[in-house]
Amino acid sequence: MTQSFKLHSRAISRRSFLITAGGFGVAVAFAGLPGNASGAAVAPAVEGDYRPNAWVTIAADGIVSIMSPASEMGQGIMTTLPLLIAEEMDADWDRVRIVQAPSNAETYGNPGFYGIQLTGGSESTRGYYDLLRLIGAQTRKVILASAAGMLNVPAIELKTEPGRVVHARSGRSLGYGEIAAAGPLPDPLPQATGADLKPADQWRYIGRRDIPRVDVPAKVDGTAIYGIDVQLPGMLYGAVLRAPVQGERPEAIDDTAARTVPGVTHIVPLSYGVGIIGDTVEATLRAKDLLNVTWSTTSRVRNYASTRLLEHYRSVAGDLSQTGVEAFSEGDADALIANAATVIEVDYMSDLVCHATMEPMNATALVTGDTVEIWAPTQGPTGTQGFAAEVIGTTPDKVKVNVTLLGGGFGRKAEADFIVDAASLAKEVEGRPVKVIWSREDDIRHDKFRPLEAQHIQVGLDADGNIAGWRHRIVADSIFARTNAELFANAGGHDDVVTEGAHFNYAVPAHRIEYIRQDNGLDIGFWFAVGVGYTRFGIECVIDEIAAARGTDPLQLRLELLRDQPRARNVIETVARMAEWDRERDGRALGLAYSDAFGSHCAQIAEVSLNRETGVIRVHKVWCAVDPGVAIQPRHIEGMLIVGITNGTGHALFEQVNIVDGEVQEGNFDTYRVIRMSEAPEIEVSVVPTSGSPVGGMGQVGLPPVGPAIANAVARLTGGARLRHYPFLPDRVLAALNA
Predict the structure, then answer these.
(1) Among 44, 153, 508, 556, which lies 20 to 30 A Cα-Cα from 430?
(2) Whole-angstrom distance between the N-terminal and C-terminal Cα of the chain?
(3) pTM over 0.85, yes/no
(4) Domains, the chain, ranges and CATH?
């Protein structure tokens, strides 16, 4: 069937298509031709190469280089996005190499993020999908126009095959390399519209399972370059001692002992800490431990106690007299709930969690006069340019960012604090690069945590047990108030990342969502599935509570509430068949949850058992059915779902940050508990795309349903013990059993 789509309204500028002087520069190629894992080979622009636009270069030997504009952090985006261009231009994928795009938002910015270069929010594929297909189609038209001139035939008589232009009437053909070697670029360049895109039944690459990820070979053989691997001539190393309480500053620094460490070259006072520069990583860490700093005591975060605040948040959520910002309203939910025959009224809560990426925060910076060059595992090249420029006192256009591979991101590496570290220290030793590497303890204690939050959900049921009204109150700090104050203000004080996922597609007569912001001084930030991770926890558990109240199968209740949502019904019915929903289990139970977040439909069923003496939950297996609309790379989608489900299981069972008097109590994996390999469930994923649907996001889709599926399974196993507080620590499970 023909794939339908809607083009983004953002116009594609001429600059997006044309190569400009300096716009190409030097980039890092992270994967080469099959069998040639090039690791981090420098790939400069070659004079004389055929460049139809800023995204594609064709060499005389037929090698096609395609820019990848997003950051590769394990989600396979370095394959997915260039594949869209390759599809539409009819490149031979076996002769394609991928090049990380330079920092240039005007050319490589994501339309889904207002044109900046930023990877996150499951927005890369959704944001670039139409643009990159159009760029591929335009590239194909340029190639055809050049070939028409070389063959002296009308372009309309030509067609393309992978890597070749064919003139069927004369039997002649030209390889893309031959065109690159001798064909002039047409002037003016032909443009592309939606009418030039291939219909789905002509796709060669989109939807295939056998296209491997281009970043994997180098990761397997060890030649892949992450930020932490960067090595440059004359490089120094840096470390930063931060205050134990966020927001404090150094008032007195005794660096006498630190300066005696061999290899230490500089001790640098900073507004937020103390920097150390040295010849080795070990020297900087040793000196850091020997610093004696007197810190200020004025930060509001000193009053931050996570356990106490969470109870306060819960009281605020349940106090309907404390109004917040109305995030969504449809119908008169308050009146319908007030007049309902039965009201279900519950609280759901989530603790602070950190990102705990395998690669800790790090960045390398080189300052030369008013120019800066950065090498970093960053999700946000545009933000990196801005912050580095501010530190040095220059302009963003004089900051070049080399994006390396990321050893995990999850939103943490969209921040710029580690960039500021590197730029600040490099400024002190102009002309020499400085690499700053955070310790694991720094990484956890100075993270930008997912917000502490409490939810109060009221659902009114009529006499027949049908939902009459749904009210959802979310109490949490704001991410946007810190990261994008203008957007936060323009939204009237609403943070749609913090409340994301609360707006569902279940058919209810009235639905109201409120956000009540708290501000206790602590920086909180973007996390894997951010708001959706906890809003869907509350929603999906309440759906099961409603089903129990009315004596209905929770699967059938969801199908009833999604009667006008065929894609949603399909993933639920599919996962039910996969898990054999109606089959009895001995000592185990199944729980179901569903999400439509990020434009994709995902249903999961978890099979769990419970040790009633210890309160320990064991998740044995998770089944998952997902409809991403367009399944660009089905096998890679399965991989991303497995990652999300595994992380989501650990998040639901273990992950927790505690803050007492402003100080983070956890510091490494001995105290910040993550899932172990032996605890990971068996996972089975089915990808069920819907032809004609828009492409959905996929990077974060796997996490939101798994926690509520586990909680719902425990409730079915125990006859109604409800787990309403992330994570499901054993003492909390035992308390629920004894409630």
Answers:
(1) 44
(2) 54
(3) yes
(4) 14-221 (3.30.365.10), 228-298+361-437 (3.30.365.10), 306-352+449-738 (3.30.365.10)
